[in-house]
């Protein structure tokens, strides 16, 4: 066994893993902490993130309809409140007093007609949530949004500005965390973890890809989309497996001015991802919109979704993006639990804490997640009490019935087709497509012995990726066996 040892090993060097290590080392100086993860972070969500600090901008018609949805919203809301102090503390700890100084403040959400009625419903839900929770917001004339110049057929119908939301440069935050961790003498290991070592029902360490074992008393598993194989240490079917939500983004340098002053985005659309543009200063703009779920991580962008991203950004936001220079393409994999909700908490293996499945909210929620996890590690408020819905070992959370899932899959499919330029002959309407999508989803559910309502992007993954289908169907059988039936 290796001589290398730590009190706590954090598996994963993305924003959540590093934030937890930073918070733990800062609050418990006598605790030895080690972070393990590949230095290049290939395929990781954090390095490709637009890092929108959006809570209300992410609200959908389903957000507040279930206890789990409400709990996830509250986590996002608490994180929105936490970011100013977190950023200031990290700026001081890293020696980067300018951390976030150039970050855009404020998010403007646009409702246009280039998608289906899904946009209408989610925009209405956003306004309703902002009013309910007294979040500052203002409906504005879309003509007043500086930089906005879409095609006529994509001009926005309504716009709402959220002054407390915005974004931060993900790469700058990661660099600041690295410097702060170095100041706190937190060790790092540039390697991949192959497995979690246990003995007598408790954690004893982690095994690296080359077979070396690092010993420890506790492990925080925060490896994002790369977590699934490491969860095999838990009983089959006890934890919703983590899939990979492939996101493509492009950084551009503006040539035709003025450009945007704030984050601009649409409501969340099909695939739980809205079109968004984040100004990063000096004419640099981050453009994202894509989310396709697969069984395994992706590392390069594909032609089809890259073309789609550039097309919709130019058509719906600013035609003058045609003249922008491409600075670089970014590809990351969001960690998506099969039931769509985070996996955050202690497990039946003593000393093992899991933080995964944060999907699109990981960067935004990282300060609050770090605080809650470290509270638990240090014997304060427990994660089981703070986030009871998200305990990793659980039955799959069902926010939709199977019939609702079938209809929502069709609804998302039609909306995506409209955004992609669907044109129908005058003698028909979208009901034909809805019927096609519903039949496809029912065909999948007809083959399940223990069906549960799944999000549209998970159903699409099952239909497009045979490995994802096998993974999900096997999990549902194993979960039914482990928990003795689904509620």
Element layout with pairings:
Elements: E1 5-11, H1 15-27, E2 33-36, H2 45-48, E3 52-53, H3 67-94, E4 105-112, H4 117-132, E5 138-140, E6 156-167, H5 170-183, E7 187-189, E8 193-199, E9 202-208, E10 213-221, E11 242-253, E12 263-265, E13 276-281, E14 284-288, E15 292-294, H6 303-316, E16 325-337, E17 343-346, E18 352-356, H7 362-377, H8 383-386, H9 402-419, H10 431-446, H11 456-464, H12 466-483
Parallel strand pairs: 1-2, 1-10, 2-7, 4-12, 10-18
Antiparallel strand pairs: 3-6, 4-6, 5-6, 8-9, 9-10, 11-14, 11-15, 11-16, 12-13, 13-14, 17-18
Helix pairs in contact: 1-5, 1-7, 3-5, 3-7, 9-10, 9-11, 11-12
Give a description of the structure.
- The chain is α+β, with helices and mostly antiparallel strands and 487 residues long.
- It has twelve helices and 18 strands.
- The strands form two sheets. Strands 3, 4, 5, 6, 11, 12, 13, 14, 15 and 16 form a ten-stranded mixed beta sheet that branches.
- Helix 1 packs parallel to helix 5 and helix 3 (67-94) packs across helix 7 (362-377).
The gist of it:
It contains twelve helices and 18 strands.
Name a few traits of the molecule.
single chain; 487 residues; alpha+beta; eight-stranded mixed sheet; 12 helices
Shape: globular
Report the helical percentage: 25-40%
Number of helical segments with 4 or more residues: 12
- Distance linking N and C termini: 44 Å
**Rg:** 22 Å
SSE series: EHEHEHEHEEHEEEEEEEEEHEEEHHHHHH
Estimate the strand proportion.
15-25%
Secondary structure category? alpha+beta
Low-confidence stretches: none
Give the number of DSSP strands: 18
Output mean pLDDT.
94
Sketch the major β-sheet.
Answer: 10 strands, mixed
